[in-house]
Specification:
Blueprint lengths: L2 H9 L6 E3 L4 E5 L12 E8 L8 E2 L4 E3 L1 H5 L11 E4 L8 E4 L4 E2 L3 E6 L6 H10 L1 H5 L11 H5 L2 E3 L3 H39 L8 E4 H4 E3 L3 E3 L8 E2 L22 E5 L4 E4 L8 E3 L4 E3 L3 E6 L9 H8 L2 H10 L10 H4 L3 E4 L2 H19 L4 H20 L9
Parallel strand pairs: 3-8, 4-7, 14-18
Antiparallel strand pairs: 1-10, 2-9, 3-5, 6-7, 6-9, 11-20, 12-19, 13-15, 15-18, 16-17, 16-19
Helix pairs in contact: 1-6, 6-11, 6-12
Length: about 400
């Protein structure tokens, strides 16, 4: 019998009492937003949290800080450290976080100050993490916003404190292990980026340089929407950010024609903020005008390797070049003519293959969910979620 099972059989053999979030909190508040038109309200020393920073993690700093004047002239207010913060609006609605420093928040944060005599704040945090889908389902409107009253009335089991502390101790170990693996993965990614930049740097070597327009062109193929589906339609929404490929599309145009792409073409997001989205195609399909389809010219297929070109176009060097010539005010687009003037070093084909082989190994170690650290992190995350669900399942109190 595990320690938790012994505690349950001793402290609550007839089941666990259920109550509401409101009943385990000493205070529940939301925040506010100082007027964004008043520059004197921003740039101070007071941490101010927005919902987009609420993402199942500890908050140790905020991206925006406000001034004392901003605090006085808005409805935002200080909350102490170790509150459980629930995002109520937008894309992060129902996600939770813990502030490890005193801070202020915007009005879309529901801040739960837990009564330590009734509950461990991390027990409440882990419970709400486990209830994400159910809590999210309470949302209303186009953005699935949740109101504070629904959070206050949300039911929660409250086992005796020794049981809560034991559960927190176990789940903390999973969290720490995952954080250590994430930190190692981040270090590997930085190492990968360093070697990628070194391998793709031919500035001091005697190689031929050609513009992208000399070795490749944009696809002129047209494809009817009747021949595409969720797996072979590509828009900027289903290209993954930060050069991580693509996912299955949730949307497929019903009529008209699209730009056709072929296997080994390189698809690049061509509207900000999607300029860092890029994918080397593994199949034939269709896309729209927000995505560029770069295809190596037939004559150069035996001179320029498509994977080698992909790594150059996925580099920070190309992204910075693309941003330099992007046009437009609100949603800048890449300049198609300027992009074709981007220069690419063309070493011997064997050297291109050597560079690609090294980069593919690095890429798999830091990005492939089936091998290396990403696979281990995913396995640990699933293990954590499994045990979290088991540990937070309680028999209701039998009052008979």
């Amino acid at each position: 019998m595990s320690r938790i099972e012994k505690l349950i059989s001793t402290l609550c053999p007839n089941g666990v009492e259920w109550t509401t979030i409101d009943n385990v909190c000493s205070n529940i508040v939301s925040g506010g937003t100082p007027a964004t038109s008043r520059s004197e309200y921003y740039g101070g020393d007071i941490p101010w949290l927005r919902t987009q920073e609420v993402d199942w993690k500890d908050i140790t700093e905020t991206s925006i800080k406000i001034t004392d004047e901003g605090l006085r002239n808005s409805s935002t207010k200080w909350i102490p450290a170790n509150c459980v913060i629930v995002a109520m609006y937008g894309a992060t609605a129902a996600k939770v976080a813990i502030n490890k420093i005193p801070l202020t928040t915007n009005q879309a944060c529901c801040n739960l100050e837990i009564d330590e005599e009734k509950a461990h704040y991390k027990f409440i945090y882990y419970w709400l993490c486990n209830e994400y889908r159910n809590l999210k389902a309470l949302g209303e409107g186009s953005q699935s916003n949740i109101n504070g009253q629904k959070i206050k009335n949300y039911e929660i089991p409250i086992p005796p404190l020794p049981i809560q502390h034991e559960i927190v101790s176990i789940l903390d170990k999973f969290t720490i292990l995952e954080a250590e693996l994430e930190a190692e993965l981040e270090a590997r990614r930085k190492q990968y980026e360093f070697y990628r930049n070194e391998l793709l740097n031919f500035e001091e070597k005697e190689v031929e340089w050609q513009t992208l327009g000399e070795v490749a062109s944009y696809s002129k193929d047209r494809i009817n929407t009747s021949s595409i589906n969720r797996t072979n339609y590509v828009g900027v929404d289903n290209l993954l950010q930060n050069r991580k490929g693509k996912t299955t599309s949730n949307y497929v145009p019903e009529k008209g024609s699209l730009i056709g792409y072929q296997k080994n073409d390189i698809l690049i997001g061509n509207i900000r903020p999607y300029l860092k989205k890029i994918w080397k195609s593994t199949n034939n399909g269709g896309t729209n005008g927000d995505v560029l389809v770069v295809r190596i010219n037939p004559y150069h297929k035996n001179i320029l390797n498509s994977d080698y070109l992909y790594y150059h176009l996925a580099s920070d060097n190309f992204f910075e070049y693309n941003m330099q010539f992007a046009k437009g005010a609100k949603m800048p687009r890449g300049d198609k003519s300027a992009i074709l003037k981007f220069t690419v070093p063309i070493p011997a084909y064997e050297e291109q293959m050597r560079v690609v082989a090294i980069l593919e190994k690095f890429d798999a170690l830091v990005n492939d969910m089936s091998v290396g650290l990403p696979a281990e992190i995913e396995a640990r995350r699933k293990q954590y979620e499994y045990y979290r669900g088991r540990l937070l399942t309680f028999k209701p109190l039998n009052k008979n």
